[in-house]
Amino acid sequence: MKLSFFLSALLAAAAPVLFHSAAHACAVCLSGSADDPLTDAFNWSVLFLMAMPYTVLGSIGAFLFYNYRRSTKRASEPSARTTIAPLTWIHKESGR
Amino acid sequence: MVREAVARRLIEPEVAEELRTPALGGGEEPPTGVTSTQPAVSNARLALLMFLAAEVMFFAGLIGAFIVFRLASPAWPPPFQPRLPVGVTAINTVILLLSGLTMRLALMAARRGKPTRLVQWLSITALLGTVFLGIQGYEWLRLIGFGLTLSSGVYGATFYTLIGCHAVHVFGAAVWLIAVLLQARRGRFSERSYAGVQLCAMYWTFVVGLWPVLYGLVYLS
After folding, report:
1. Are residues B5 and B52 in the same domain?
2. Does the model's ipTM exceed the 0.85 cut?
3. What is the pLDDT of residues A22-50, one digit of tens each?
4. Of A59, B1, B65, B195, which is most buried with the most CB atoms under 10 A?
């Protein structure tokens, strides 16, 4: 079972080498010339789409970091902490 | 007598220490100095953030396709195709950007616990969003009249797909906004509880922020 799986995986990995003409996954790759506007258009589009996940994840990370820092700052402010000041009033009131 | 006993009990050091401890958190204070157990970003905001990330990738795919067609074409707009209404849409862009500002003011009113202001700013935002959609719809009808349709070529197809998808998103955001406005009118939001306004504002900011990018790409490029 293990051997057949290993052989199948090896065959699948070797297939692009054996049948290289059929293995060109992208029609644009190796087909367009450098000065072709279509090649240039695809290059810019691919560059844009490649940059997007990093931009999105970076923005989310920055947003979360900013919010974390802000909430930490707010929580560390003296006014944010629970105080026992109202009890002073009760004490005074009860002392009358 | 009873009041004195209660007061004495309240100022006892053990009871005072118990009262200082946050009700939900319990235990010792975290080392960072954060006394509250509330997360920095709520689950709802995080979920919307993930949704917006998916939306950004969706529009990135459409923009990627537009870039291919735009840069590969020797002449843009192609010959015998109507020109897009750049001037009117510029005014429309200002209207949408203003709605982003009023939404921000609505959020600030919600944070400060001013329900009347909140309803006012939400109403103005909804009105501006509706005006934007109305002008877009009118311009679309004119363009269809001039012969620019989804099937008239790559120019029409990319225009209606990209701008149409954004218009659908603005429509969805406007429906959400009106639902939030109705809730605000019923007094559902307060200084401490305004998550509904906050989430709607996030989504509205997304659709507003996306528009100048699309306008620059589709109308001005």
Report:
1. no
2. no
3. 666 666 565 667 778 888 888 899 999 99
4. B65
